[in-house]
Amino acid sequence: MRGAPPNREVGWWMLGLNERWSFSWSVSHSLRWYLETSKQGLTAKQTNAASDLNLGDVIFYDFQGNGRIDHSTIVTSIVDGVPYVNAHSSNSANRLYTYETSTAYTPQMRYYFYKIADVFN
Questions:
Q1: What distance separates the 2 farthest-apart alpha carbons in the chain?
Q2: For residues 24 and 31, is the Cβ–Cβ distance under 8 A?
Q3: Between the chain's N and C termini, which has fewer beta carbons within 10 Å?
Q4: Exposure of 63 by Cβ count < 10 A (0-12 exposed, 13-18 middle, 19+ buried)?
């Protein structure tokens, strides 16, 4: 984690259980912005294909196709090269990344795939 209270607009951090957190910790659109611009700590690079992802990578969802990120998930398994995800929402454990079985799915949905940087190299 990086950053600290009281500035919720800087970094990626959480202080105490349900006490205070940065916007990037709790808002998907802010997390995408943080991952794209961070130069240290948690960083990621966007890729064009779901098949490029590994365990721990992140998928962002734009449900309306309007350029505003509405949701994010973490890749928790890969079956035959296809990512499955978990998310902090109901019935979202080991769900196919396309989210077609979710009530949030729309035909306009756009996906943004991010590979989390290897922090050990």
A1: 44
A2: yes
A3: C
A4: middle
